[in-house]
Amino acid sequence: MPLFHPASVQARLLSGDWTIFLAASLVVAAIMFALIILPAIVWRRRPNSGLPPQFNKNPRWSIVYIGVPLLLVAGLFVPSYIRQKLVDAIAPSPSVVVDVTAFRWSWRFHYPHSGVTIVGTPRTIPTLVLPVGETTQINLTSADVDHSFWVPAFLFKRDALPGYENHFDLTPTRIGEFRGVCSQFCGVDHAYMLFRVRVVSDAAFARWRNSKGLATL
Amino acid sequence: MIQWLTATDHKKIGIMYMISTFFFFVVAGLLALVIRTQLAAPNLDIVSSHTYSQVFTLHGTAMIFLFVAPFGLGLANYLVPLQIGAPDMAFPRLNATSLWLFIFGAFTVLSGALVAGGAAASGWSSYAPLSEIKVSAGAGQDLWIIGLLMVSIGSILTAVNLMTTIFLLRAPGMTMWRMPIFTWEIVATSLLILMAFPPLASVLAMLLIDRHLGGHFFDPSQGGNVVLYQHLWWFFGHPEVYIMILPYFGIITEVVAVFSRKPVFGYVELVLAAFAIAGLSMGVWAHHMFTTGAVNDAFFSATSFLIAVPTGVKFFNWIGTMWKGSIELTTPMLFALGFMLNFLIGGITGVMLASPPIDFDAHNSYFLVAHFHYVLGGGSLFAIFAGVFFWFPKVFGVQLSERLGKWFFWLFFLGFNLTFFPMHIMGLEGMPRRVVTYPNVEHLALLNGLATAGAFVIALAVVLFGFIVLLAFRKRVPAPDDPWGGYTLEWATSSPPPEFNFHSLPNISSERPVFDARQAARRAAEGVA
Amino acid sequence: MKTFVALFLSSAAFGIAIAVVYNITSHELAGTFLLGIMASALVFAASYAILAERDADLDGDRKDERVGEAAGEDLGIFTTSSVWPILMAFSVLIFLIGAVWVPFLLFAGLAAMLLILWRLGAESNRTGGRGIT
Q1: What is the structure's pLDDT at C71?
Q2: Is residue B92 a contact partner of residue B158, using CB atoms and an 8 Å limit?
Q3: CATH homologous superfamily for A96-210?
Q4: Do B282 and C38 touch (CB under 8 A)?
Q5: Among A54-58, A89-93, B368-372, B499-503, which is the least confidently predicted range?
Q6: What's the angle, vertex CA B398, arms to CA B393 and CA B403, rounded to 5?
Q7: pLDDT category, C72, cuts 50, 70, 90?
Q8: How far is B156 from C79, CA to CA, in rounded Å?
Q9: Chains B and C touch (3+ CB pairs under 8 A)
Q10: I need a labelling partner for C119 at 20 to 30 A (CA). Which of A171, B37, B379, C75 fits?
Q11: pLDDT tens digit string along A40-81?
């Protein structure tokens, strides 16, 4: 599961957020499950029982069950906000820049500083080549309808919108090949609008780039 | 028959709403079976991609617009005048107009399946530019727009009707703070409808103008803006999901109190929480847009986290109602407990999704599909069945089998969780939503297989439910005025109620007038003895 | 009735507050506009509520009201059936189909709606009712 194998610096931050929230969720769920199921068992109606005590409020407990959740969500907001800011940050001088254009139904990857352009089709899935340990800035847009660029291994997606250019950084930490999918419904071949992310060593990337994308990796 | 076409009595109108919405539930459910069959294994080819797009579009549209939301309004139509001791709604003919706008609108939406190019196929949220004329040229999309415009107008008129009725037609002694919680939730729901549906009507009209009248609202090549569509859609779309849960919170409150033999715990908190939720729900919409990069993620994350607090308060109020009570696990109560467990899961994943870092991975994946099915299916749908089993005897004058009802509950609870729990994991393993198929990677094949199996268990359960209803009409075991030991005024009249509802009303001095009357009668009888 | 006023007043206050906070934190036109219009609608409703509450004297608001005391009070006429609602809904459908495909139907639908509004009024006068609803 990508959650346990984050493949980029940003993904590690995002995975940390998942961990915090999953932990909090499990604790809350356990407590609430018990509170819901317990009464049904402990206070199951016994035959010929009369009316139970008819209390209908408890102001002291009110303070607890309003205050504690409030503090909990306020507390969760802080790490969430910090990580959001860090992940959204754009480095001033990235090592690589790729202009990504989504279209019905594949992707175009254009490396402006190297003159390499890769265009895919649903049958020939395009590969986005990235150097490990370096920051690549992606400039993302769409040529037609809304799409979304999602790499599960990076725990990250951003929408490709016509009339907009979205910018984000990817700093891969692992060499390997990762799946990419379109995650905004865009028509009949939406499910086939796939791409690959191939993370390679600096040397391999330099070779690949200098050969205008023709060198085999 | 003509009687029903010209009826203005809120009880007849309520019944027509509830029966027609159940018809659309079955339609939407069959569409779900098509989806799950196509996704049973990787790379299946059971339906074409274009057909599949229509199927999931109509599944979502029908479940949301033609079942969950209008069923709540239908139940409100039936119950609210009874619960406040009124003879009918404030505007009976307007009420009937709303009903027929809904029914004609619903069939218009579905009629797209019969035209060239098929039904609308751009998802229930119909994002532009995908839904624009250049990309989706068929009449199906236009019929979808027109149908929903009619449904919207009907909903707005119903909200006006309900609010007026509740404010003006309460029986003597039925002050606002003695009203049943269900009725209070309907006040909050009506307020939300009034705030949220006009933007829906606007965005639908704008889409229609773009499609046929030379508009360019959402076409960037002509100066339009695609994010604007999303703002308008979700400014409606988020309150819509609270419109689809508040009435059901009301059902759960009524059911839990009666079957715990306790008064509602935290009555004032429940009311204030409903309005806190309603208010905040107008300020969270762009949490559906975190991945656009075009909105203030922090603002919407904060409001979305906040809205969890009043929701949690309601949970504690229900728990407090059950606490040290005398709990009878009838079918309605089982569904109420199931609601609480399922909605808890859905609520927790909702808070997770409210964190943008989590949303960056989970948005538009099957994790999201799991979340909204847990709140709508595990939540609203379970509450619907709780309400059906609770009020069926009142509405139709005959009883449903408790024994079969319990079987139905367990089958449904099992099927529901088998279908939707695996979807959390599917999302985490990188499966996007609205896909006609998926590759055989990670555990997607196994998880999808489980989900499909669960879907057919649900289908079996629904067939059992149909049988339970038919059996009830066959055996016709008569229902007394008050089969459960209820608290609120609908239990003070016959099952079914007479025209104009009450031959006589008990005195109203608390939020439990029927309970009070029963206690007074008991004390009087003991006094005599 | 005071509850009704409190409800709309607090909703209006909340609407104004959230519109202002949103604008300050986000500077985003679409959302600010939507929240602003929403707040305006709520202010409008709150103003009406305050004015309406002054003359309000509902039986339902009296805490100590014994049902028997209000027995026989006239709540007005409630219709038992009418053919106009279903015809009105159908006219709206015709109107919308006309708006998209067949302009003649747009006018036919509109004419039908106006005709039905007239008949609703007549029906109400005949039965001693309160208007077209």
Answers
A1: 59
A2: no
A3: Cupredoxins -  blue copper proteins (2.60.40.420)
A4: yes
A5: B499-503
A6: 80
A7: low
A8: 21
A9: yes
A10: C75
A11: 999 999 998 899 999 999 999 999 999 999 999 999 999 999
For the stretch A167-192, pLDDT in tens is: 999 999 999 999 999 999 999 999 99
Residue A43: closest CA among B253, B261, B324: B324
Residue C45 lies in a domain: yes
User: In chain A, what residues touch B350 (CB-CB under 8 Å)?
Assistant: none
Contacts of A185 in chain B (CB under 8 A): 53, 122-123, 127, 130, 433-434
- Between chains, do C60 and B174 touch, taking CB under 8 Å as contact? yes
- SS3 state of residue A130: strand
What is chain C's Cα-based Rg? 22
Query: Does residue C50 share a domain with residue C1?
Result: yes
- Residues B390-419: what's their mean pLDDT? 98
**Residue C94 and residue C132 share a domain:** yes
Determine, yes or no, domain membership for C61: no
Mean pLDDT, to the nearest integer, of A135-153? 98
ipTM computed for the complex: 0.97
Instruction: Determine, yes or no, domain membership for C31.
Output: yes
Sketch out chain B's domains with CATH numbers.
2-526 (1.20.210.10)
Task: Give residue C129's pLDDT band: very low, low, confident or very high (50, 70, 90).
Answer: low
Q: Which domain holds residue C122?
A: 77-133
Q: Could you please report the per-residue DSSP string of B186-240?
A: HHHHHHHHHHHHHHHHHHHHHHHHHHHSS--TT-GGGT--HHHHHHHHHHHHHHH
How close does chain C come to B259, measured CA to CA in Å? 28
Number of domains present in the structure of chain C: 2
Quick check: A70 contacting B, CB < 8 Å? yes
Is the CB of C93 less than 8 angstroms away from the CB of B108?
yes
pTM: 0.97
Residue C130 has pLDDT above 70, yes or no: no
**Distance (Å) from the alpha carbon of B219 to chain C's nearest alpha carbon:** 16
With respect to residue C97, please indicate whether it lies within any of the assigned structural domains: yes
In the numeric block, which tokens belong to residue B251?
């059902």
Cβ of B294 within 8 Å of Cβ of A21? The answer is: no
